[in-house]
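seq/struct pair 1
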Amino acid sequence: MFEHYLALILSFVFLFNIRVLRAVKCDFDGTRLVNNFNITGFLGTWYELERTTFHWVDNTWHSQVWAFKRGNDGQLYMAYTGFSPRTQSCTTPNTGLLSGNGGAYTLTSKEGRYEGALRVAYTDYENIALVYMCFAPVIQGTCDRTTVTVSLLSRTSALYTPQRSVLMTHMDLKCVEDHHLNQAMTGLCREPIPTIPVGR
């Protein structure tokens, strides 16, 4: 009998925590972006060294590698891959289209399906970057925290303490705190090559 009541209590606590987590709204469009963002300087390869895990929890990818490239027609492409704890392998690289400007972009699949909103909060272009993503439509400028990801990026597979300190001074997404960030394993996946249609 005791075990039955204990199970009920634990279930209630779990559901309560889920509801509380889902109730947290992030002021996604109220965050600061890079001043005079230079997308050309941001192109190339980035490695994710730390990230939040609200959205995919235990199956949040490790060793994510992002590659940004501009096609001959001016279209921006983002290729990405990562190591899935569920399959214990690197995912097949995906390529999406980026539309927007000034550090605020929308990522869609090549078929036109919405994938997420991307905000470049800080970058020095040569070494590090702080990026927010919302994997749900941004409604009235807000994004549910369960669909938000904060990524600390580096041009290499290492992020040094002084570099991390710089990134954290720029993190102004109020719904996310330092302790929400988790270190990712690195060096597991190769750099993805953006799949750009012929002629673009």
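seq/struct pair 2
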Amino acid sequence: MRLLTTTALAATLLVSPTATATTTASTSTSTSTSASTSTSTSTSTSTERIPVILVHGRNAGPGVWGTATAALTARGIPADRIFAWSYDTSRSTNEVLAGQLSAYVDQVLRQTSATQVDLVAHSLGSLPTRWYVKYGNGSRTVRTWVSLAGPNHGTGLAWFCALWDQGCKDMTPNSYVVGRLNAAPETPSPVRYFTFWSDCDEQISPPTSTPLTGAVNTKTAACLKHNDLLTDPAVLDGVTAALTGT
């Protein structure tokens, strides 16, 4: 893993541009649109497709999902069923963000007349989405949850920004949020869980923090850095397969 100085680490930590089944993949890229700006031609296939909500990581925004959105649409997911949630990554996972995500999911369900959504999260985004699934309405409204390079069991590097950033504090190993999320079962039914992770992830320490008991956990074949999982074609192929069942 590439070493960073404390100063550089504090500035760049976890910035986006986390018996278990295990598979192998390669590299990836990603992007998406929001519920308020998503446009596309409506078709019968589109209206039947479960909406996909993309959730970015720390100090990022919906723009990181551009490549992923293109990849998902190219693989048959209609553009008007792809949304990106934008949020303040310095806020509390359980006290603030999970509730805001719940409201956003409700908005997407109303807009699309769907009854469920699929969630795809990168890095820190894995925590509020997972909290919503486990302790919010997500057990009812979420069909599939996907985590790319998520700090699902915490990351030691988060200590470098935990003093002033609640999002970082939530990512520290054995934090209140991480502890509650990993209380058995880690992956409560009926939601389907998938994770993608890399041995070369320089932000999730250790990289094995991402896999979850009860999820389909995919270790990339290629040596991918943290943000590479947003754009790697093999990872995006795996995400599409998770969302479509193919």
